[in-house]
Amino acid sequence: MSAHVRPGSRALSRLLEAGLTLWLLATLCFVLLRAAPGGPFDTEKAAPPEVQAALATQYRLDRPLIGQYAAWLGDVARGDLGPSFQYPDYSVNQLIGNALPVSALNGGLALLLALALGIPLGVWAALRAGRWTDRGLMFAAGLGLAIPKFVAAPGLVLLFAVTLQWLPAGGWGEWRNVVLPVVALALPNIAYCARLTRASMLETLSAEYLRAARARGFSPARLLFAHALKPALLPVVAWLAPALINVVSGSVVVEQVFGIPGMGRYFIQGALNRDYTLVLGVVLVVGALIVLINTAVDALRGWMDPRLQDAS
């Protein structure tokens, strides 16, 4: 029999694990950025040597690599992600503070749309397993998974913005600007959620306790909503963590296509311009979000299935 782990000890262990993960992620990203060819001020090579020296001193680039790393790590420990190299009028904290709500809105709406459509479609397909409607839905879901975001996003722009002229092709500031990016982010997740829900529902419907409840004369609606739906959704809840991570990573492409001032766009621009502090700040924030997402999903799964808490 395994020893019972106290909730406080489990929380402390997860906190230490999260801190170690973020430190390793930040350190690896720091080393890889410095190892890449080029620098943030390559365009200033024609400037006088004293200007180049002043820039290097201002951004600590004149220090040894270990000195730069220690100074940056000390700033991060105080909650300061440092100045941006390419946006001198803004700190990284300010840039991320402006971009994070935009990415969170797009990602959150995309995931809600995926759940709102994927779960009912998956249940509907499972209840009609083997029929042409089920096959057609699963074919469409497979097609949705096969089309990458860098194809789906321009395709949506071509159809709804250029051809039909129903929605704007890009920009930010109005609700109409949100529709196409959210749909582009949600499409593969809708497809995967529908397939996952269908497979889980089919397995649940064939369980022994469902057969016993059916033999007792329970109505199909009661069987579905009171007995089958909650256990069938456990795999979907477990999928929420990778789904959110997929939304975060997919926003890089979508935000570039639609010209959205979000985290993904700043990450791409920071990487291209060798803006070390901006890239590291985005990586740290995204990494922290992923850790929080995994923790929240684990807690939700434990609430839905107490056996998972006993096994941990």
From TrEMBL:
CDD domains: TM_PBP2
SUPFAM superfamilies listed in its UniProt record: MetI-like
Membrane topology listed for this record: Multi-pass membrane protein
Domain of life: Bacteria
Segments traversing the membrane: 108-127, 139-166, 232-258, 278-297
Domain ABC transmembrane type-1, residue spans: 100-301
One Pfam family, short name: BPD_transp_1
Keyword set, alphabetical order: Cell membrane, Membrane, Transmembrane, Transmembrane helix, Transport
Compartments, record wording: Cell membrane
Family according to the record: Belongs to the binding-protein-dependent transport system permease family.
Protein name as catalogued: ABC transporter permease subunit
UniProt source species: Lysobacter koreensis
